[in-house]
Amino acid sequence: MENRTLRVFKTMSYREKPNSEELAFGRTFTDHMFVMDYSDAEGWHDAKIVPYEPLKIDPAAMVFHYGQSVFEGLKAYLNPQGEPLLFRPRKNIARLNRSNERLCIPTLDEDFLLHALKQLIYIEKEWIPKADGTSLYIRPMIISTEPFLGVAPSKEYKLVIILSPVGAYYKEGINPIKIAVENDFVRAVRGGTGEAKTGGNYASSLKAQEVAGKEGYSQVLWLDGVEKRYIEEVGSMNVFFKIGDEVVTPELNGSILSGITRSSVIQLLKHWGISVRESKITIDELYQEYQKGNVEEVFGSGTAAVISPIGQLDWNDHKMFFNNGQTGKLSKELYETLTGIQYGRLNDPFNWIEKVATQQTMNKVG
Amino acid sequence: MENRTLRVFKTMSYREKPNSEELAFGRTFTDHMFVMDYSDAEGWHDAKIVPYEPLKIDPAAMVFHYGQSVFEGLKAYLNPQGEPLLFRPRKNIARLNRSNERLCIPTLDEDFLLHALKQLIYIEKEWIPKADGTSLYIRPMIISTEPFLGVAPSKEYKLVIILSPVGAYYKEGINPIKIAVENDFVRAVRGGTGEAKTGGNYASSLKAQEVAGKEGYSQVLWLDGVEKRYIEEVGSMNVFFKIGDEVVTPELNGSILSGITRSSVIQLLKHWGISVRESKITIDELYQEYQKGNVEEVFGSGTAAVISPIGQLDWNDHKMFFNNGQTGKLSKELYETLTGIQYGRLNDPFNWIEKVATQQTMNKVG
Question: Domains in chain A and their CATH numbers?
Answer without folding.
Answer: 6-171+353-365 (3.30.470.10), 177-326 (3.20.10.10)
